[in-house]
Backbone:
């Protein structure tokens, strides 16, 4: 029974990490924006969903949509007030990237402080009754409905994101921006519009993962986003910047390692073991498991 439960825990943790890291990978791969405010957006979106649930009685799906909308809105605000002006004012690519990283740190700090004040820096959660927990016997193992929902959502979300990037006109435009932001406008791509859309999708993924995780863990605080951001950064590097399938594989690999370390009684070594694995992989594949050249990153 213990082994089956560890498998379920690893699968659900991997699914949460997948949804969260996909958003970070998308903006980094397509826009060269390492959004260090992604963790703060994750927490703020989850707080919006819980606040709505504590205010009115609405279906759980509506709460997820509210979390996604909050994440998308915050990400677009960051694009409009920080990233877009930096791209226009700073012509040097490397300097612009560093300025954007600094801007994301500041934006995340502001969000964390606002949510911290609203929650008095305490754990927040959904009210009792907002989600009805049920356990299912799946033969080999037992799992709660929220665990099944999280796993299925992550897989479906990854497939849809990959399809959007690889098979749609908008995805083609995003890949053109990833290849060259200067050449893309010559091909008819509206860079500002696509950048805002990319940020919105990234924020929505953060909001979805946050809203699901606050149910699974029965609560979170602003520190949760910081912990997940570190893992997501490792996942994107391990899987390859901009690679959807690499991100998924790396997320579940990292989740399996962490779950195994904790089960063995070395929970304090969880981060060290995980990042040691990353170092070993990158020694043999510096571009990550599925990383490719600059032209194919998105």
Residues:
């Amino acid at each position: 029974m213990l082994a089956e439960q560890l498998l379920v825990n690893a699968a659900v943790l991997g699914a949460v990490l997948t949804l969260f890291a996909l958003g970070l990978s998308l903006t980094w791969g397509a826009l060269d924006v390492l959004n260090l405010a992604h963790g703060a957006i994750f927490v703020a979106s989850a707080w919006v969903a819980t606040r709505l649930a504590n205010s009115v009685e609405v279906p759980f799906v509506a709460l997820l949509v509210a979390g996604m909308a909050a994440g998308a809105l915050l990400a677009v605000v960051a694009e409009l007030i920080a990233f877009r002006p930096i791209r226009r004012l700073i012509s040097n690519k490397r300097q612009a990237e560093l300025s954007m990283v600094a801007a994301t740190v500041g934006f995340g700090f502001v969000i964390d402080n606002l949510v911290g004040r609203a929650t008095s820096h305490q754990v927040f959660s959904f009210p009792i009754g907002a989600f009805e927990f049920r356990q299912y016997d799946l033969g080999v193992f037992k799992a709660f409905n929220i665990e099944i929902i999280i796993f299925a959502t992550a897989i479906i979300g990854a497939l849809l994101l990959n399809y959007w990037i690889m098979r749609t006109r908008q995805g083609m435009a995003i890949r053109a921006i990833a290849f060259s932001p200067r050449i893309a406008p010559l091909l008819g791509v509206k860079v500002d519009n696509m950048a805002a859309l990319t940020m919105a999708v990234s924020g929505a993924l953060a909001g979805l993962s946050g809203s699901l995780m606050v149910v699974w863990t029965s609560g979170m605080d602003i520190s949760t986003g910081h912990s997940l951001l570190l893992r997501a950064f490792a996942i994107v590097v391990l899987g390859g910047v901009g690679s959807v399938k690499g991100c998924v594989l790396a997320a579940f690999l990292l989740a399996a390692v962490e779950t195994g370390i904790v089960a063995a009684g070395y929970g304090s070594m969880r981060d060290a073991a995980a990042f040691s694995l990353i170092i070993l992989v990158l020694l043999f594949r510096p571009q990550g498991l599925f990383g490719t050249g600059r032209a194919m990153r998105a």
The chain has one domain: 14-222. The chain has ten helices and two strands. Residues 14-222 form one domain. The longest strand covers residues 135-137.
